[in-house]
């Protein structure tokens, strides 16, 4: 009986996945725990990867889903987060995993300055890295989050009339969700007029010090030294902020660079104003000339917005004319209110990350750990333009890229569209002339081009180079849940392939 009791002891983690990799707090201390009986199944492969990790500083395969750095440091020491999330991972152990599910446990752990005003406007939030970020906007009113009820266990009263949970339950489908048209409206408002995206969950780091330029040269594949300087502002996708933070700090230490990395993620908010009317809206709010000549694409300035100092960046993750505003915390709401007031006559709306997912895949922008994983290279991912290979500046991984470029790509990412309007989410099989050559990493519906879009890496079954001709000459199909659909392969994004819209050129 004692033996049976011991065997039944479980080690559930916050997401029911193991904890692996180098501990963020202590260099050289590696984790390989939290397998919860799955160690009998995962032990061989995970043990091999952990050994490679210890020896070479990184695993050979994509282990990001098990990497301890997938959790933000503010959460891993928080008893409420550990207790609630570990309970929910146990409660949903055998539940079907639906594409857009969200946790009910440990919500509202990290909230940005816009949280309350967006909640009042019907925002349905997603949880990422502890942050509450906008998912989409419910037109039937607010759907605020409630404290975790442990699904009615432990004599805790179960939440009733919980609108957020009711909306989640409606998404438990592998078809299009019931609010598909709402997300369509958010996307097309951005494409035709203007939309505001709260992206405050981004990591916001400063790299400073006498060796900051040397560190930036080594860390980043792109040439980021257009102007001399010893300081860099890094805005990093919120879900990967902890991973990036630890990677950069490790590189600085290993290379002996004399510089510091400081985290200001909680000190600033960030909104992105995107769409053909974004310039007209922001010209009323910012005290600077926003013309193409005065404020070109991929540049930034510190400016005043409604009397508050902000950093404006002319960038886009949706493929439109637009600017990001990086705003000190106390100035966030006044700046947001000024933007919404100036945009009212243009029909400005709030949009969420469900719209960003659709808009970005339509444009062909890459998402971390879907289109891009640790085992992908920039060349395979179609991002050679981000690598300073034409310069003589050394950077981490340059030798591997030069070798791969010389030998040719044995796999590469390809865009696929289907004329049949079917929902796809990623992991659908890709066939070329009836032979499996890969699977979709990410898929969504593109509302502007009115097609299902997917991106996946394909290989040549013969082991040869995946050339442009190999892609053009094949007949492709995608298999979704046992049904095969004809697909068209694209070497460039089918939406705005000449990249005119981000430059403000609209037909």
TrEMBL record:
Residues in Aminomethyltransferase C-terminal domain copies: 411-495
Domain FAD dependent oxidoreductase central stretches: 56-111
GO cellular component, one term: mitochondrion
Every GCVT N-terminal domain range: 230-390
Residue ranges of coiled coil: none
InterPro entries: FAD/NAD-bd_sf (IPR036188), FAO_M (IPR032503), GcvT/YgfZ/DmdA (IPR028896), GcvT/YgfZ_C (IPR029043), GcvT_C (IPR013977), GCVT_N (IPR006222), TrmE/GcvT-like (IPR027266)
Domain of life: Eukaryota
Family to which this protein belongs: Belongs to the GcvT family.
Protein name per its UniProtKB record: Sarcosine dehydrogenase
Species of provenance: Amphiprion ocellaris
Gene: SARDH
């Amino acid at each position: 009986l004692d033996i049976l009791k011991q065997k039944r002891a479980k080690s559930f983690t916050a997401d029911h996945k193991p904890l692996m990799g180098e501990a963020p707090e202590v260099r050289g201390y590696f984790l390989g725990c939290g397998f919860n009986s799955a160690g009998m199944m995962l032990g061989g492969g995970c043990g091999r990867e952990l050994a490679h990790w210890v020896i070479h500083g990184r695993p050979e395969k994509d282990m990001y889903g098990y990497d301890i750095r997938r959790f933000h440091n503010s959460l891993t020491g928080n008893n409420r987060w550990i207790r609630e999330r570990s309970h929910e991972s146990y409660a949903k152990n055998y539940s079907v995993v639906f594409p857009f599910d969200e946790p009910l446990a440990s919500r509202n752990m990290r909230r940005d300055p816009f949280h309350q005003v967006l909640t009042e406007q019907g925002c349905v939030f997603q949880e990422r890295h502890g942050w509450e970020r906008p998912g989409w906007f419910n037109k039937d009113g607010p759907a605020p989050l409630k404290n975790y009820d442990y699904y009615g266990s432990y004599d805790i009263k179960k939440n009733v009339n919980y609108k957020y949970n009711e909306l989640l339950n409606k998404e438990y489908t592998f078809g299009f969700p019931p609010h598909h048209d709402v997300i369509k409206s958010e996307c097309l408002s951005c494409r035709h007029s203007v939309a505001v995206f709260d992206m405050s969950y981004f990591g916001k780091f400063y790299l400073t010090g006498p060796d900051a330029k040397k560190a930036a040269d080594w860390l980043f594949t792109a040439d980021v030294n257009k102007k001399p300087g010893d300081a860099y502002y890094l805005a990093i996708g919120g879900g990967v902020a902890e991973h990036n933070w630890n990677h950069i700090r490790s590189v600085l230490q290993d290379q002996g660079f004399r510089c510091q990395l400081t985290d200001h993620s909680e000190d600033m908010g960030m909104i992105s104003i995107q769409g053909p009317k974004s310039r007209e809206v922001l010209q009323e709010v910012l005290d600077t000339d926003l013309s193409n000549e005065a404020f070109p694409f991929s540049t930034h300035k510190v400016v005043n917005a409604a009397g508050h100092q902000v950093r404006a960046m002319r960038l886009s993750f949706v493929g439109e004319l637009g600017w990001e505003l990086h705003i000190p915390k106390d100035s966030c709401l006044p700046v947001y209110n000024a933007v919404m007031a100036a945009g009212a006559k243009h029909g400005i709306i709030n949009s969420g990350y469900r719209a960003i997912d659709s808009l970005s895949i339509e444009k062909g922008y890459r998402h971390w750990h879907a289109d891009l994983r640790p085992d992908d290279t920039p060349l395979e991912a179609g991002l050679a333009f981000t690598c300073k290979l034409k310069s003589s500046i050394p950077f981490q991984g340059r030798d591997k890229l030069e070798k791969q470029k010389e030998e040719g790509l044995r796999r590469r990412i390809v865009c696929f569209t289907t004329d049949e309007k079917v929902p796809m989410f990623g992991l659908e099989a890709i066939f070329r002339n009836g032979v499996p050559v890969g699977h979709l990493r990410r898929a969504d519906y593109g509302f502007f081009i009115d097609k299902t879009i997917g991106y996946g890496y394909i290989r040549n079954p013969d082991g040869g180079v995946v050339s442009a001709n190999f892609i053009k000459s094949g007949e492709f199909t995608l298999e979704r849940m046992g049904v095969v659909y004809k697909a068209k392969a694209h070497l460039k994004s089918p939406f705005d392939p000449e990249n005119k819209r981000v430059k403000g050129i609209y037909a």
